[in-house]
Amino acid sequence: MFSTKKARTRLTGVLAGAAVFALAACSSGGGSDDDTADAGGNGGGDDVISIGFSQVGAESGWRAANTKSIQDTLTAENGFDLSFSDAQQKQENQIQAIRSYIAQGVDVIAFSPVVESGWDAVLEEAKDAGIPVILTDRAVDSEDESLYESFIGSDFVLEGETAGEWVSENLATEPINVVELQGTTGAAPAIDRKAGFEEATSDNPNVTIIDSQTGNFTRSEGKTVMEGFLQAHDDIDLVYAHNDDMGLGAIEAIEAAGLVPGEDIKIVTVDAVKDGMQALADGKINFIVECNPLLGPDLAEIAKKVVAGEEVEKRIVVEDQSFTQEQAVEALPTREY
Ligand code: AHR
């Protein structure tokens, strides 16, 4: 019953707007005048679309797959001139990159916000410059939705709920103590996966979250935090990790403590990247909720529409699945990432 979470849905429709189109069309000419790069066509337009993309960092296997999807899709052959920057998980680096894309006069800015808050000022600057912004992967908490055209990404609350429902039904038929490895503090997936899990387990008195700390979505910090959990508690039944990498770090810590991951301490994670799926198939992880990182094609499609002044959806929810150990064994041979 957990195998298919949600088909891709397109929610509230909005107009990109004639004003945005007029301004974007102006900047299109300034962004690139390299007609040779337009050989693959850009969906009917004559100009190459210059796009500045500010990536969160390279913190996880998920992020590596997401970066590859974006770089493989926003190519000259497909009608794009991509400027890509890696913010190393620092908001100030992303703000700096966005300001530099504004100064360059790119046609479109896209970014995956490292944290939810603190974007209004720089988004206002992009809006004043007439440059449309597309959010990928992670949300911002701006109340003014006119500051961006569209947000493409998974439903992180639903991911947390799916993890919590599986735990509640499959493990918490007796009392269990849970430790939680949270993602980056202030990041949408950390906030939402925590909330979704808590909501889904709140009506099961057998589930007790005895500790919860950030591992910053990295394998090394996941391992360090898990070592601390193991020193502080001798009664851990389950690790709920907000991504595979932290779960994989936890496996290292559990094995180093002489325990068997997946048996002595159960593990549930989010992402379903290859390393995580391998650990699931090997019995070291017990359940994974997928977060699909292949956002490049949707980003390309929305960017083309925005530049062409077409209507785009304000929120595009990407399709995800979830995997048991048996399903991981079946899925691994053809897994794309
Ligand atoms: O925003 C998506 C999350 O960011 C992924 O789940 C995690 O692995 C990454 O660091």
UniProtKB/TrEMBL annotation:
<dbReference type="GO" id="GO:0030246">
    <property type="term" value="F:carbohydrate binding"/>
</dbReference>
<comment type="similarity">
    <text>Belongs to the bacterial solute-binding protein 2 family.</text>
</comment>
<feature type="signal peptide">
    <location>
        <begin position="1"/>
        <end position="24"/>
    </location>
</feature>
<dbReference type="InterPro" id="IPR028082">
    <property type="entry name" value="Peripla_BP_I"/>
</dbReference>
<dbReference type="GO" id="GO:0030313">
    <property type="term" value="C:cell envelope"/>
</dbReference>
<protein>
    <submittedName>
        <fullName>ABC transporter substrate-binding protein</fullName>
    </submittedName>
</protein>
<dbReference type="InterPro" id="IPR025997">
    <property type="entry name" value="SBP_2_dom"/>
</dbReference>
<dbReference type="Pfam" id="PF13407">
    <property type="entry name" value="Peripla_BP_4"/>
</dbReference>
<keyword id="KW-0732">Signal</keyword>
<feature type="domain" description="Periplasmic binding protein">
    <location>
        <begin position="51"/>
        <end position="311"/>
    </location>
</feature>
